[in-house]
Amino acid sequence: MAHDANSPSGSYTPEPRPSILIAWGSSTGYTEEVANGLYDRLEPDVDAIVDIADTPVETLEDFDVLILGIPTWHVGELQDDWEDCFDQLLKLDLSGKLVALFGCGDADGYPHNFQDAMGLLWRQVEGRGASLVGKWPIEGYDFQQSEALTPDGNHFVGLAIDEHSQDELTAERLDRWAQQLRTEVGERFRPRERVVA
Question: CA–CA distance from 147 to each of 44, 150, 171 (Å)?
Fold first, then answer.
């Protein structure tokens, strides 16, 4: 915390908390439901939740923490609304921002492309200066390949949701990930004490 020179000795004023945006794209409603479930678990810390289809992509520059939700379509393809703004993401300055991702996929139906879109989205925003939070372990999933893995292959770049074959695990995974995000974001934005002479 920063020391307030106008306050009594030994007292501190709180630093502003980071602004947080949840932005999702959804064609069948699954990713929207997950986004709303995450919002319920993170409020009142979330400042806005938006459908990327109805939101100028430049809005992402207005927040400190971006939680982005995307399903994988067909054989490793982007969801339509994210695809529509995908090239525009390259024009953004996301330096200093934290990005967490969640994706919806179908490991049974597409085991060789599980959560690919989440990996594609991460690479796009990583190139604009963003830093990743919210990596998720691959244990508990049955898939063959994914573009959404971290370089060591031990984690997804974000929370992997499978409403097709593991829907019974979604609530628990959201609970755990929400707590993980609170911890990781809190550590990144933990204020340092500043001594005022």
Answer: 33, 9, 24
To the question of pTM greater than 0.70 for the whole model, the response is yes
Predicted confidence (pLDDT) per residue in 26-46, tens digit: 999 999 999 999 999 999 999
Q: Which DSSP string corresponds to the chain?
A: -EE-TTSPTT-EEPPPPPPEEEEE--SSSHHHHHHHHHHHHHTTS--EEEEGGGS-GGGGGG-SEEEEEEE-BTTTBPPHHHHHHTGGGGG---TT-EEEEEEE--TTT-TTSTTHHHHHHHHHHHTTT-EE---EE-TT---S--TTB-TTSSEESSEEE-TTT-GGGHHHHHHHHHHHHHHHHHHHTPPPPB---
